Amino acid sequence: MKKISFVKVPEGRVDEYLDKFFVTSAFTFEGLDISNKRGNREMEKLIRKNGYEGDELLCYWFNGNVMNEKYNLTGDNRYPDDLTFVVIPDFYNPMFKLSVGARWFDDIVQNNAYRELEMRGELSEQAQ
Asked: Which of 1, 13, 27, 108 is least crowded, fewest Cβ atoms below 10 Å from its Cβ?
């Protein structure tokens, strides 16, 4: 039976999981409401229609406060503490990603790092 599962990233293993999501450039949604069961089923149907073939669609989730702490995000670059990130590590479809507003996890992290440097005035003239 095909199903979708949402698993919270374990608190004691945040670094391990987020580092893996970064290295693998995992498919990521920012701000997804995982309490919306109907929306979750629709998302699952779309992902399966766009190439996901496994029986279980495993989605990991964590909140903005985890991103803020892990990557030392400050000021306007911080996420709302309760913003939900959903990562689907076993799915890769660039065209679908663009069509639904998802991002690669490493892009999110690198964009945040760039903004942190910019806010501190630590970017060279060439980088800007």
From this structure: 1
The pTM assigned to this predicted structure is: 0.91
In which element (H, E) is residue 59 found?
A: strand 56-63
| Cα-based distances in Å from 104 to 15, 38, 95, 124, 126 | 17, 24, 12, 26, 25
Domain that holds residue 93: 3-117
The pLDDT of residue 128 is 53
pLDDT computed for residue 120 by the predictor: 85
Residue 35 falls inside a structural domain = yes
Residue 128 lies in a domain: no
Question: Tokens 């599962």 belong to which residue?
Answer: 5
